[in-house]
Design a protein that fits this description.
The protein is mainly α and about 160 residues long. The chain has 7 helices and 2 strands. It has one domain. The relative contact order is 0.20.
Length: about 160
C-alpha cells in the first residue's frame, strides 16, 4: 500500500495567532474589555480637554471613543470572533467532524494530548496530523476572510503529512 504525502504551508506567525485565538475564543470579549480599559487608562480623559484647542492633542471623551472604535487590536479580535463562529460550523458540517472535536478538546477543555488520543482513538502521529490540518484549514479560510495577507516575507512552516 502506498502512502500519499501532502505538504501544507502556512506562516508560523499565523499558526501562533490561530492557536492564541483558539485558546482564548471563550474570552475574546474579556480581551476586548481589557484592551479598552488600557486605552482609557492611558488617555486620562477629561471633560475640559476640548479647551486645549484644535492644534494640540486632546483627551476629550470624544477622542477616546474614536480611538476605541479605530483600535486595530480590538477590531481584529471582533473579526476573529465573527469568523470563528461560522468556521466552527464549517469544521463540524463540511470538513471532518474529528477536527471540530479536536478543537473542543484541545483548546476549549484544555485536555492533555494523551487524553485527547484516548477520546479520539488516534495515535500520536495522527493527533499531530489533525492539529496541523486544523491550523492549516483555519489559515486557508482566514485568508478568504482577509484575516491574513497572501504572500509576504513571513517565515513559512512546511509540514508533510502521510495520508
Amino acid at each position: 500500500m502506498e502512502n500519499k504525502v501532502t505538504e501544507l504551508l502556512y506562516p508560523q506567525k499565523a499558526s501562533k495567532e490561530i492557536s492564541f485565538i483558539f485558546y482564548n475564543y471563550k474570552n475574546i470579549n474579556k480581551l476586548i474589555e481589557n484592551r479598552r480599559e488600557s486605552i482609557m487608562d492611558k488617555m486620562n480623559g477629561s471633560t475640559r480637554a476640548w479647551l486645549k484647542g484644535i492644534n494640540q492633542s486632546s483627551n476629550s471623551f470624544e477622542d477616546i471613543i474614536i480611538r476605541l472604535d479605530e483600535d486595530r487590536v480590538i477590531n481584529r479580535y471582533k473579526h476573529w470572533n465573527e469568523f470563528l463562529s461560522s468556521f466552527f460550523n464549517i469544521l463540524k458540517i463540511y470538513e471532518r467532524p474529528i477536527y471540530y472535536r479536536f478543537v473542543v478538546l484541545k483548546y476549549f477543555k484544555n485536555l492533555e494530548n494523551e487524553d485527547i488520543m484516548k477520546i479520539l482513538n488516534v495515535n500520536r502521529e495522527q493527533l499531530k496530523a489533525i492539529k496541523t490540518k486544523v491550523i492549516w484549514l483555519t489559515y486557508q479560510y482566514a485568508l478568504k476572510d482577509k484575516l491574513f495577507e497572501i504572500g509576504g516575507t513571513e517565515q513559512c512552516r512546511s509540514v508533510k503529512l502521510f495520508q
